[in-house]
Specification:
This protein is 32% helix and 12% strand. By secondary structure, the protein is an alpha/beta fold. It has a single domain, classed as Rossmann fold (3-Layer(aba) Sandwich), CATH 3.40.50. Strands 3-2-1-4-5-6 form a six-stranded parallel β-sheet, with helices on both faces. It starts with 6 loop residues before the first strand and ends in an 8-residue tail after the last helix. This is Nicotinamide/nicotinic acid mononucleotide adenylyltransferase 2. Belongs to the eukaryotic NMN adenylyltransferase family. It holds the Pfam family CTP_transf_like. Keywords: ATP-binding, Cell projection, Cytoplasm, Cytoplasmic vesicle, Golgi apparatus, Lipoprotein, Membrane, NAD, Nucleotide-binding, Nucleotidyltransferase, Pyridine nucleotide biosynthesis, Transferase. Its main location: other.
Length: 307
């Protein structure tokens, strides 16, 4: 299968990241490795989207700290970036809304034809383009010049919102936001692009808890987008799948990563990290990247039981 014939994937992970751990980064790496091995996918990017402060989870530190820690955790990555959109909204956003936001954003500013775009969402946007540059998606009457899709490549810049378009042959990627100056329209080869939710088996299991998720949201998340699941702490993912009618219905949209259940990163969690910090446990270096630990010590986050 040629590169352009493969499905190009952006992995999106939502969560508290309170704090972000080595386990979170491990999920991205294992998911990309597995999807590439299938021969059907090319992962062109990863997005970390920390939850809004109003989520109300006990011990959740302010988003300004969680965003900074996430940035520090991925500062050496050339394919994973941190997105602040969810934190910058007026209130908490559902996972479904976050997925729809990024889907609509990619379609609007790049002209991509996303394979999991069904209907436009009502997700609010930050703003309209500040410059009147020619749109990337234009000239609808001339199919020969119609840029049907793009692959997003390049190194993540320090600015959270800055992104750039590039041809599929390039080796690195980044993204574009609503306010980017896109410049002249460019032509691209047609590719299939999907945004998939990346999660651990604990989130998958939460789909089985009655009343926790709206049925309509689950249908959109699993049916319209699809999910990539990395097993955590020896979870029985097959048992979880059998306990949800929505999961059984959309089995083809659920990609289960074949990871070593005994891998040390599969048991790393934010909860264990906070406890280690509170008790001065040296094992915290096994859970968190050093720049994140340094930031936590500098700001005195999580040092007390109250957060």
């Amino acid at each position: 299968m040629t590169e352009n014939a493969k499905t190009h994937v952006i992995l999106l992970s939502c969560g508290s990241f309170n704090p972000i751990t080595k386990g979170h980064i491990h999920m991205f790496e294992k998911a990309r490795e597995y999807l590439h091995k299938t021969g059907r996918f090319i992962v062109i990017g990863g997005i970390i989207s920390p939850v809004h402060d109003s989520y109300g989870k006990p011990g959740l530190v302010p988003s300004k700290h969680r965003l900074t820690m996430c940035q520090l955790a991925v500062q050496s990555s050339d394919w994973i970036r941190v997105d602040p959109w969810e934190c910058y909204q007026q209130t908490w956003q559902t996972t479904c809304s976050v997925l729809e936001h990024h889907r609509d954003l990619m379609k609007r500013v790049t002209g991509c034809i996303l394979s999991n775009v069904n209907t436009p969402s009502s997700t609010p946007v930050i703003g309209q383009p500040q410059n009147q540059a020619p749109p990337v998606y234009q000239n609808h009457n001339n199919l020969a010049n119609k840029p049907t899709a793009v692959k997003l490549l390049g190194k993540v810049s320090e600015s959270l919102g800055k992104m750039c378009c590039a041809r599929p042959s390039m080796d690195r990627f980044t993204f574009i936001d609503e306010n980017a100056n896109l410049g002249p329209a460019m032509r691209y080869e047609e590719i299939e692009l999907r945004i998939l939710l990346l999660c651990g088996s604990d989130l998958l299991e939460s789909f089985c808890i009655p009343g926790l998720w709206k049925d309509s949201d689950m249908e959109v998340i699993v049916g319209d987008f699809g999910i990539v699941v990395v097993p955590r702490d020896g979870a029985d993912t097959e048992r979880i799948m059998n306990h949800s009618s929505v999961l059984r219905k959309h089995t083809e949209n659920i990609l289960m990563v074949k990871d070593d259940v005994n891998h040390p990163m599969s048991i790393v969690s934010s909860t264990k990290s906070r406890l280690a910090l509170q008790h001065g446990d040296g094992h915290v270096v096994d859970y968190l990247n050093q720049p994140v630990i340094d930031y936590i010590l500098q700001t005195q986050l999580y040092i007390t039981a109250s957060g």
